[in-house]
Amino acid sequence: MKTKERILVTSIELFNRSGVGAVTTNHIAKAMEISPGNLYFHYDNKEEILVELFRRMAKETYAIWRPSTAKKSTPLDLIDANFELYWRFRFFHREMYALRRKDETLAKMWRAHIQKVMKLMVIRYRQWVKDGQMVKLDDMAEIQYISESLLAMATTFLQFFESAEKAPGKRSVERGKHHVARMLMPYATGETKNEFEKFLKIEP
Would 1-44 and 47-200 be classified into the same CATH topology? Predict the structure, then answer.
């Protein structure tokens, strides 16, 4: 693995473990056993690292939501994939509000990201309707409301669940999956609805 890639991987580990504010570029360099100068050859500061990590998280999110003719994905497949991605980049979802306030670049990227995900959610929903997995809704305002509610819950679940637990961990992800599944189940149909019912019987 090249040094530039190792910097990103190490940064994710440290940010997830200690929080963005507590981690400096010196901490990242020390964990990698390289000099700070070597790190600065690739990234000028921690903010550049965060921007690159956000780009990666966003790109992977779009790949999950973008319809594919290669594989027919169910709503539960996407819930699972999204929450696994949330967990991998959990520092963003724990701290995005503070990071946005501090860094206007990240704030702009976040706003654009949310808008793009909303559009992809609607496209994917229409594909599920076409595949007979979801109930068709003709009211665009209702579709918008559901999309906003789902995205608001999914992007803030870590802050909510972890703040209420003595020992926060990946169980928060499973609880988040269940909450989103409960929100979506009334709109599921056929075998997809059966899959939701089976999933929700499993204790998170």
Answer: no
The pLDDT tens digits of the residues spanning 35-76 come to 999 999 999 999 999 999 999 999 999 999 988 765 678 999
How confident is the model over 160-176, as pLDDT tens digits? Answer: 877 766 655 778 888 88
Band (151; pLDDT cuts 50, 70, 90) = confident
State the Rg of the chain over Cα: 19
Distance (Å, rounded) from C-alpha 30 to C-alpha 19?
A: 17
Question: CA–CA separation, 24 vs 46, rounded Å?
Answer: 7
Residue 191, helix vs strand vs coil: helix
The residue ranges of every structural domain in the chain are 1-44, 47-200
1-44 carries CATH number 1.10.10.60: yes
- The amino acid at 95: E
- Could you tell me which residues are beta bridge partners of residue 134? 188
Measured in whole angstroms, the distance separating CA 200 from the mean position of its chain's CA atoms is 21
48 phi and psi, to 5 degrees? -65, -40
**What is the architecture of the domain spanning 47-200?**
Orthogonal Bundle (1.10)
Interatomic CA distance for residues 93 and 156, integer angstroms? 6
Strand partners, 84: none
Instruction: Please compute, for residue 116, the number of CA atoms within 13 A of its CA located in the half-sphere on the CB side.
Output: 16
pLDDT in the model for residue 161 = 78
> What tens digit of pLDDT does each residue of 186-204 get?
999 999 999 999 999 988 7
